[in-house]
Amino acid sequence: MERWKINLYTLWVSQICSLMSFGFGMPFIPFYFQELGVTDAVQLSYYVGLSATLPAAAMAIAAPIWGIVSDRYGRKMMILRAMFFAALILASMGMVQTIWQFMVLRVCQGIFSGTITASMSFVSANTPENRMSYSLGLMTSSNFLGWSIGPFVGGLLAEVVGYRVCFLLGGILMSVGFFLVLFLVKEDPNTYGYRVRSTEEGKARRSTIFTPFITAILICLLVQRIARTVFTPFLALYVQETLGTLTGAASYTGFINGATSFATAAAALSIARLGDRLNKIKLATYLTLASIPVVVLTIPFESLFLFAVFFTIFYFLAGGVEPILTSAASERTPAHMRGILFGIMGTVSSIGAMVSPIMGSYISVEFGIKAILVTIPLFTAVQAICIFIARKRIPPSPDEPEVESL
């Protein structure tokens, strides 16, 4: 088997392990906080929002720094660094005694982990140009497959062994991914450390990466990230509130998290591939518009089953948009600058993940947890407007075909 394929499939498996590891415990943080002694509803919402904001803020700052280091010293080293610290941090989360110890670990997670960006950057630099779309799509699916399996298994385990053990098991599974990368992934030494880093070249790269089209895509991705993550930290509390008890809440939460992540992975492997033969911007517009009425239907019903169904369909439709927009941006970026592009996209994602829990915390405290759901169709509508503006003002790539039918 060709070396790039061995690298790709190894990273695919290791990334599934990575996201599964986080999925064992992260969706159940609100329940874990209650074990740590936070019982007041207002305080709980505050700490849940803070827990989601801290790693995103730290990662937004750290990601560009690690990107510069990876360009100089190699991307495999960055994957190993991220997985090593992630394993250590996850295991430590299972042993904390106070909520502030947990918060410190969340900051460390944002600074030192980041397996997704590191793996995508490696693949973009070590894959033949004519297989780039396939490789990036496969890696995208691994992220959501891992996050679909992890919460489902973690929810079942939490009911049996408790949340602390789930975090410890997550650390062990992350270590398995670490050793897979260590022994099976080999990096081409010609893909890093060779670029001239004069001040003039650096300025040129920074000025050419932010074209009007790329800027428009980044804004769309930011708005979509907020729409998709604003409710996520509070899903467990919503399930508990709807059930009226903590008993069984972890299983329900794990099931819904798993279903939405699996739907996103399915979209990355199916809907996103339509972008190879259809106009990507038009396709993203139609998917976004279709997702708005679906997510509106999560608001009026009290049934967890109906909520899970419509929420999952929304994630399936929305899940195809991000890889389509990412692919469109990648096509319009020179090959030697795609690592920089993914680094910037990682920062944008972190900013969105930082803003959304703050917003969710405020809304939940002032208006209740269910009120957060109202913001999702609103942000999705803004996303549709942004994509429409990008489609009208920025001409498509000359070799990109028009949409035949949808």
Could you characterize the architecture of this molecule?
The chain has 406 residues and is mainly α. It has one domain: Up-down Bundle (Growth Hormone, Chain: A). 77% of the residues lie in helices and 0% in strands. The chain is built from 17 helices and no strands. Helix 10 runs antiparallel to helix 17 and helix 12 runs parallel beside helix 14. The longest helix is centred in the first third of the chain and has 33 residues. It is globular, with a radius of gyration of 20 Å. The protein starts with a helix and ends in a 13-residue tail after the last helix.
Query: Given this structure, which CATH class is correct?
Result: Mainly Alpha
Approximately how much helix is present in the residues? over 70%
Order of helices and strands: HHHHHHHHHHHHHHHHH
Total number of helices: 17
Q: Please give the number of β-strands.
A: 0
Q: What is the CATH superfamily label?
A: MFS general substrate transporter like domains
Give the biggest beta sheet.
none
CATH architecture grouping: Up-down Bundle
Structural class: mainly alpha
Topology:
Blueprint: H1 3-23, H2 29-35, H3 41-73, H4 75-93, H5 99-112, H6 115-125, H7 132-161, H8 163-184, H9 199-209, H10 212-229, H11 235-243, H12 249-269, H13 280-296, H14 304-319, H15 321-331, H16 338-367, H17 372-393
Helix pairs in contact: 1-6, 1-7, 1-8, 2-3, 3-4, 3-5, 3-16, 4-5, 4-6, 4-8, 6-7, 6-16, 7-8, 7-12, 10-15, 10-16, 10-17, 11-12, 12-14, 13-14, 13-15, 13-17
